[in-house]
Amino acid sequence: MKIMKILAIAVILISTSVFGQAGPIKMSKSGICHAPNTTYYNQTKHFTPYPSLKECLNAGGRMPKK
Predict the structure, then answer these.
(1) What predicted TM-score, i.e. pTM, was given to this entire model?
(2) Nearest-angstrom CA–CA distance, 17 and 15
(3) CA 2, CA 36: separation in Å to the nearest integer?
(4) pLDDT tens digits along 31-58
(5) Are 51 and 25 in contact (CB under 8 A)?
(6) Residue 48: beta bridge partners?
(7) What angle do CA 36, 37, 43 make, to 5 degrees?
């Protein structure tokens, strides 16, 4: 039971990038900020990278509508 709790915590930390390495926030040419693990993140090829979502938004980007 204790091992299951530890594994659950590890999965949460990895999925929220506290423990794992996440990619940069990608601002596409159309000004949309794509975070890792979002729908179009891997499909976004021409982008400006930002270390955080806040910096991407402050640079004039916007969140996806979906």
Answers:
(1) 0.65
(2) 5
(3) 30
(4) 999 999 888 999 999 999 999 999 999 9
(5) yes
(6) 27
(7) 80
